[in-house]
Amino acid sequence: MVRRYTPEVKNRVFRISYWIGVLVIIIVWIWAFREYFARYEYLHPEITWAIPGIDNQLIKVKGILLWKENVITAPASGMVTYPLGKGPVRVARGAVIARVGSQAVKAYQQGYFVAGKDGQESQWRYSILWPADAKKWPAKTELRYFQDNNQMGRGQIIGKLIELPQELRFIGYMPKKGNIEKQVAGKKLQVRFDDEDTPSRAEIRVTQDLDDRIKLYLTMSWFPPGLVTSRNYELIIDAGQTEGALVPRSAILDKNGIQGIYLVRGARVIFVPVEGRNMPNNKFLVTRGISIGDAIVETASSTREGRIQLW
Questions:
Q1: What CA–CA distance (Å, rounded) separates 192 from 202?
Q2: What is the distance of C-alpha 11 from the center of its chain?
Q3: pLDDT digits (tens, 9 = 90+) for 157-199
Q4: pTM given for the model
Q5: What does residue 21 show for φ and ψ, rounded to 5 degrees?
Q6: Which pLDDT tens digit goes with each residue over 54-82?
Q7: FRET partner for 199 with CA separation of 20 to 30 A, picked from 69, 224, 237, 309?
Q8: What's residue 6's pLDDT?
Q9: What whole-number distance in Å separates Cα of residue 100 and Cα of residue 108?
Q10: Bridging pattern class, strands 283-288 and 252-255
Q11: Which string of DSSP letters, residue by residue, matches 97-148?
């Protein structure tokens, strides 16, 4: 007698429940895994220390330069050449700065010679420029150089001489920031040739108070030949220093509208409000809130207040 085989019908509900259970177990495992590492991260944060920092408050002021100059004209008609180059070049008194035809043109005094002009030679004077508002200063013009072997007529301008020694002067408008007003009261201004330069003192000749700005006329601390190629200039003024505690910018956190830092106190991390300013290279200068040498959490975004394990 042959018994007929009847295949077992599996319960569909059981299979669905089984896979749901597996999925739940996987989700719980992933959640527990993430929670473990999240807890580990805030229990073992990266710690750094606040170091001394200084912020030099530099103000860049656009203005104009003034110097005494005299144009040099051709003594006769002919081809012009410049034995010392088109400049600006420093020349001694009696040096041959140009030749027009067969005639030599000599420097009547030592100074900077430039074989060119910008069209402002006759009107660039303090008596004209100081009373005028900056918007009424002559438009910026570029120095136009003369070329060798140009044909020049008698009396035509072939260059100009900036006499030396003389003081280079500057007119501009500077904002009232930092310790600017204190410097103005002392008739001296801390200036820099460039961002990396150390401060030098420039004598203030005249100032005019204009509410939020100060119009000034001062004597520059330097006069290199390259400056005579343009009458426009951007002066760098040192408006004082701010000292504080330098920390990574990542250590700063905005928490409920309050800017602060996580400070390490023993085996705990506490949120401390701070004041300061951003600095180059992803740094932050704290001027109030913490002290130099304090231990802080390097990355505030992945930290929270509470106990930590430093070791």
A1: 10
A2: 75
A3: 999 999 999 999 999 999 998 889 999 999 999 999 887 888 8
A4: 0.69
A5: -60, -40
A6: 888 889 999 999 999 999 999 999 999 99
A7: 69
A8: 54
A9: 16
A10: unpaired
A11: EEEETTEEEE-SSSEEEESEE-S-TTT--HHHHTTS-GGGSPPP---EEPPT
Q: Which run of H or of E encompasses 235?
A: strand 232-248
Distance CA 3, CA 13 (A): 30
Please determine, for residue 33, whether its predicted confidence score (pLDDT) is greater than 80.
no
Q: In the block, which residue shows the tokens 């896979």?
A: 19
pLDDT confidence bin for 241, thresholds 50/70/90: confident
- Alpha-carbon span 49 to 264, nearest angstrom: 10
Lowest mean pLDDT among 57-71, 130-144, 242-256, 288-302: 130-144
Q: Could you give the C-alpha distances from 178 to 56, 58, 184, 239, 301, in angstroms and in order?
A: 10, 9, 12, 5, 33
d(CA 45, CA 308) in angstroms, rounded, equals: 8
d(CA 300, CA 41): 11
Burial status of residue 129 (CB atoms within 10 A of its CB: 0-12, 13-18, 19 or more): buried
